[in-house]
Amino acid sequence: MYPPSLTPALISDHISTVHNIFGTPLSLVEIGRANRKRHAEVGDTLNEQSVGGPLELEAIAAVHELSNEVRSIAVSEILPRTADLIFVNIKTVEGHPYTLELTMKGWRIASLQCDSMNGDYKRVGLHAKYYENARQLLEEISPAHSQYFTKCLTEKLTQLHAWRKAQEEMEDDVESFEKQTGRASTSLKKEAEKKDGENDTQSDEGLMFTVDESSNR
């Protein structure tokens, strides 16, 4: 089991640091930070005519990176999806469904149901709070996501270890087979050489016998 200090957030930060060497924000944390900075500078409007912009990239990064920390996560196919607004459905490991709204301002909980924009009017504060990135939001609504992530990581590493062990055993079997085949081939070669030698000896004896008979005549 991995230590409690190994959390999804720390791994994401490490990945961000590595990618920052090349100046390319690829993690959801870095993409979110870049989009929030852009919002602070130019506001909500992106002035883009179609999807595929910075919000689309951030949503895809969230779906990809958080897939092992929740039961399900996907961009909504029912709710509006524009360059300025994207909705993401998520079900936490605790089994709670949410619709998350993503704008340049950040992430917020739009609804306590999937594919819905109707919030709980009794919990206005929950729906009014914005988060810089999806991971921050997930840490608040799903306390068990870190343990679930660690469990999935452990299972995948165990599977990888088993696969590598099977590969090593297969390579050992192949090597053993090749050695046995090589020994058998060498043995057959020696037997063939021995047989050829015996045939040569018999031929020489026959030749000597023929020569002797000719001499006697």
From TrEMBL:
Protein's name in the database: GSKIP domain-containing protein
Domain of life the protein comes from: Eukaryota
Entry-linked Gene3D superfamilies: Hypothetical protein (hspc210)
One annotated GO molecular function: protein kinase A binding
Coiled coil regions, renumbered to chain: none
Family: Belongs to the GSKIP family.
InterPro entries linked to this entry: GSKIP, GSKIP_dom, GSKIP_dom_sf
Ranges for region Disordered: 169-217
UniProt biased composition (Basic and acidic residues): 188-198
GSKIP domain: residues covered: 56-160
Pfam families, per the entry: GSKIP_dom
GO CC terms of this entry: cytoplasm
